[in-house]
Amino acid sequence: MREVTFGQYFPSNSFVHKMNASIKILIVIAYIVAVFSVKQFHFLGFGICLAFVITVTAVAKVPFLKVLKSLKAIIFFIVFSAVLQLFFNKSGTPLWEGGFITDEGLKSAIFVSVKVSLVVLGASILTLTTSPIELADGIEVLLYPLKIVRFPVHEFALIMSIALRFIPTLMEETDRIIKAQKARGADFDSGNLFKRAKALIPVLIPLLVSSFRSADELADAMDARCYAGSKNRTKFKKSVITWRDLIGLIITAGLVVAVVYCNGFYIFPAVFL
Question: Has residue 181 been placed in a domain?
Fold first, then answer.
């Protein structure tokens, strides 16, 4: 579990690292919209999104294997979603005579798995190239208009950044508790699904206790430093838009246009001839 990289920051001096955090958040949102706008079974759009992820990873100078490791955190969800599509999608032709798995169900399982994986890969690049402080500032800038309705923008951004920051910490703590329980004779690998889920109870309880303890210690540390939220708070680094951000927005707009073009090409090919 310590190899799960989602929520971790990979320091570097790359083009992507120097971009404005709020612009990177907007780019990730546009990328997710592009992924979810891919039409059913039209995998060419996924190929464009994957090429975009690989290109951004190379420009960010982040090892692609490190980005792939972010999928470990949701591998169960991906498999579960794929199995649901296999068993409950009855449209199409059975793969074998009298079988319950159809070709449409298999395509749908692959489609859902690829879609979720691409979304996680894009989100992991954001966290790998943006520090928690920059991420909080970016969220605060994007949500600034909500201050008109007295929404606690700064506090909300701080909560989001702290949650992302503690994902690797919780992973390491879970791994440590599991190893401690195994040393005491606990078995997490044998038995059916229900027995394995029941065996995790001795892990969840100390994990919750440790999480509340960490939250309490963090609150005491913030209180000791006289933290008072956004009241009279200044920033060491000002949020500015540079030429890097404009290039990133233009490339992302090209991604969205390419995916929309692919969708339209499949549906109305005559329009583009």
Answer: no
